[in-house]
Amino acid sequence: MDEIIDIEIVDIKLIEKALELLEEKKFSELRSLLEEQNPADINDVIDELSDEKSVLIYRLLPKELAAEVFVEMDSDKQEYLINIFSDSQLKDVLDELYYDDTADIIEEMPATVVKRILKVASPDVRKAVNELLKYPEDSAGSIMTTEFVRLRKSYTVEESLEFIRSVGVNKETIYTCYVTDDKNHLIGIVTAKDLLLSERNEIIADIMEDNVISVNTLADTESIALMFGKYDFLALPVVDNEDRLVGIITVDDAIDVMQEETEEDFSKISAITPNDTEYLKTSVFKLWASRIPWLMILMISATFTGMIISKFESALAVLPILTAFIPMLMGTGGNAGSQASVTVIRGISLGQVEFRDFFRVLWKECRVSLLCGIVLGVAAVGKVMLVDNFLMKNPEVTIFVALVVGITLFATIVSAKIIGCALPLLAKKIGLDPAVMASPLITTLIDTVSLLVYFYFATVILNI
Amino acid sequence: MDEIIDIEIVDIKLIEKALELLEEKKFSELRSLLEEQNPADINDVIDELSDEKSVLIYRLLPKELAAEVFVEMDSDKQEYLINIFSDSQLKDVLDELYYDDTADIIEEMPATVVKRILKVASPDVRKAVNELLKYPEDSAGSIMTTEFVRLRKSYTVEESLEFIRSVGVNKETIYTCYVTDDKNHLIGIVTAKDLLLSERNEIIADIMEDNVISVNTLADTESIALMFGKYDFLALPVVDNEDRLVGIITVDDAIDVMQEETEEDFSKISAITPNDTEYLKTSVFKLWASRIPWLMILMISATFTGMIISKFESALAVLPILTAFIPMLMGTGGNAGSQASVTVIRGISLGQVEFRDFFRVLWKECRVSLLCGIVLGVAAVGKVMLVDNFLMKNPEVTIFVALVVGITLFATIVSAKIIGCALPLLAKKIGLDPAVMASPLITTLIDTVSLLVYFYFATVILNI
């Protein structure tokens, strides 16, 4: 069978060529090269450059393309550019941007820059952007655009096409058009496909889809991103509390949310404070700051496990080999716990598991953990007898020691899976982020339980 | 500020209402209810039902909607339905499906069902599907569709619109049209927006975008999904080795890939064999099977750490308090390692980090780990002196013990971060999946290093 080709999504050759032309000051050749490129690729070039050189590249681009590249840029570079723009240059860029992109840029800028942007912007832009900035972060309102095509149900297809032709160029999408009544209520949608495939004299009311899925301006963006995955939408209408159409969310913005939420979850389950810059572009200090808090919390919470061990110091002194199994017990417990917690955390993130499923989840994990616990417990007894007793001939290791290890492993796995599945759901219930539960708290709890069980059985079975 | 509304992407009320109507055998009411729904929502209802009752619902739906719902269904239900379909019923469904959906369904079916599908399918379908099935899993060819609109550069806008009207209804998207030459080479794209906003007599050659980004049939789907995120495409053309256009990938399929790849990564970094069914729908046995192998590997690999501890049993017997710090050292090491490894694994998955960045990554992690190690090492010395020495007045704990713990913690964190960032990159280099490196191997290595360092400094500084 043919081999899959691993493609790179950053065009290294383009970057090298562009840097070379820049170095040699061959600006007109550089301009012709860049004019042909996608804005995202041009931004990859800019990403490699200092602020000063970025400006050089930026100034080579035709106005419209320059604005498209501007949207792609890091907020630091955007800020730098805005600061060196004259008022009229800034206005030119703002006029080219979609309102939602302008709002996104403003959210990242310091107050003085925001003030200047809003001062320079045309009244239309200012009004639309101010409107968008009112919505809380992570709400539908904060990622929607107000530039969409609005039709009347009395229009014919011909009239609609004419209307789209007159306004379409400034709309973020023309592929889904929204039909509203006099009070601006959303009463239907018509796709460009419907319009193109229908007869010119048909009436919108007859071809529109009137069962429309929409979301409130305050709906959370994570669920909205999932809706795009579920329904294969290209755009989703956003309505206010009175069901009036106020904006739309396009699939590209939904993909961005999906990617951000995923990376946030990855960070949290590995005990890192989320951070939205690319790894290689994040400063050492920033990486340190996002990692040290959880390491610190974990180190301090390990005081408990240390205290438990100190308490049973005398038991360990009698039978030092018991110490040798502690890493295995705690390691397996940690892994068993994170298998359950990550599964449940993802289920919650994907909207597949809710708090109301608490007992279903618990019952499932009980059974899975019994199976895992029995198999691993038996395997551990076998391994201890085979390796430590038979092969390494350690006189301290008896069948009773093996039994203590096996039983403890069993109990550790069962409790690890139960703690691992329950904590994220409880966190969700009380309004905390389930993903934050993944590491520190669960690990500490499982370690504590596993040590207590270990020493209990050691004292009971081995009489120490 | 207003509160974000947590929306549910499964419509519980619809499901309850549908089940109620089904229970009461109010079929015509049920049909009217379902006819208004999105296929994905109807499938949520079917998901709650037995195979027999699913058939009841399925038979109520109008032909076209039924086919759309069929695509959404679990492969088990699809297989059940296909088995009870007559040949002509099966053909009706197949005629309604897009070729790529048929190919996807076939991939999940046992050989006998596949044979029957291909026998019943019309020659066109059979040919197209056989073509698609040739491509290896995870290749562009395996997720593309061959139903797209092909234009000639000599067409006028008017002719193109007429052409779309004649063929569009069977195409998966008409929003991006592809311009090809006599030899079927892709020479440009025209969007429906371009067509709608241009004058009717303009020539395609003049309005088409001729700098087109395309991928080879064998390009890997994970990178393709990232391209959709980067370039905001609605569709991406796929070409063969001779640069002939053979298909397109639409954004909804790219989103599916993105979601699958993400879940695979989450599974792997939590030491679970990936599995594409929803958690609550996965059987206990399947969950067990996806979790036990890694737990077993981890348990067995912990033999090493056990052996190290046995070897230093006498040192621990002299100063039993040393045992109390082992969980903290290993726990912090594990966390520090997974912070680095998950960060790098995600960087690789997102195409932001490549093997050629090896030394950049290593240098970054060295500095981050020095910072983390110094802070935590000092904090550990302080904590041990404050809690164990001063508060708990443990006579065994001296400043030298605290120093051993602090130095070991420092060394553990530095080595954990270096191992954590290096292994995924090395795995990538030799063609293994970086995500698989996250748990077992890294944990075992870090635990081993940390114990060796601990006992080394314990013997040197404490003279035991």
Descriptive notes:
Two copies of one chain form a homodimer. In chain A, α5 crosses α7 and α17 runs parallel beside α23. Chain A folds into three domains: 127 residues, Alpha Horseshoe (MgtE N-terminal fold); 118 residues, Roll (CBS-domain), CATH 3.10.580.10; 184 residues, Orthogonal Bundle (Tetracycline Repressor, domain 2). The first copy, chain A, has 23 helices and six strands. Chain A is mainly alpha-helical and 464 residues long. The model of chain A has no long low-confidence stretch (mean pLDDT 90). Chain A starts with 11 loop residues before the first helix and ends with a helix. The longest helix of chain A is centred in the last third of the chain and has 34 residues. In chain A, the strands form two sheets. A three-stranded mixed sheet of chain A has the order 1-2-3. The first copy, chain A, has a three-stranded mixed sheet with strand order 4-5-6. Chain A is elongated.
